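Bench notes, afternoon.
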Amino acid sequence: MHPSQPDTDMAEPTDPATEAFLRQLTDRFVFVEVVFLRRGDAFELRHVADTDAEAASLTAIDVGDLRALAQTTRDGAFRPNKAAPNLRRGWRCEAPGTARLEAALRHLYPGGLADWAAARTAPPPATHYRETAARQTGLYRITPILPDALAAEATRACCDAGSCLRRRLWTAPGAEADPEAAKSAMPCLEPCALLLDLARRAMKLEQGPKAELQIAEDDLPVLVHALRTALARPDPEVREGDTAAPSNPRRLRLLLEKLGPLMPASAVVEASA
């Protein structure tokens, strides 16, 4: 932090959400992709994959540096969704005191702590797909007319754990909320802009011209395998929100969703092997 800037992170937290979060922190607690190692009133934060790494092998960074860390992937691509499973590794951060811990959470997962606290109420204040789509105008005004099956496909493709680690509490027709143990402790309370953009793309594809393709049934698992291979080797040049790009992960998963009903049971087993 620049010496001339006030250290606003040091103010004692009075937010009930922070207090509730602290009460349930154990000596080792994982929130999305970050492990919090508690040592009395102090905390050390690391990428969960580096939990047991030697401290000397990790770069020590300040709490204020976490904002920049969360902005980009290892390849330098912008991270519009801070809950995407692509947080950079190889760092550790000391947070001496609860105020610094609160600041660290705010930098890594903006709004995540407030959503976590809200989801603890019964019932959680989730806004479901149809409610969200109904109030859209402009670019997303097409999203309310998605058929139920298409809304479910777009939801599963967009909210797959390979793209987002928020536990989805909202539903779409044919797509129930994520199970309690799914993904992470950070909830998703309503469809995000990335979901609405994929829903818009799905509807435009549905309304657009169609190509006739004759393919052998035995080739369906080959096509599915090719799509999954592409997902396992993401193109670093493709922006996460660019659903027009053929190699966009959400676009690939949307096609996988469409292929699923075409495959016989034996082919599904083979493709998932």
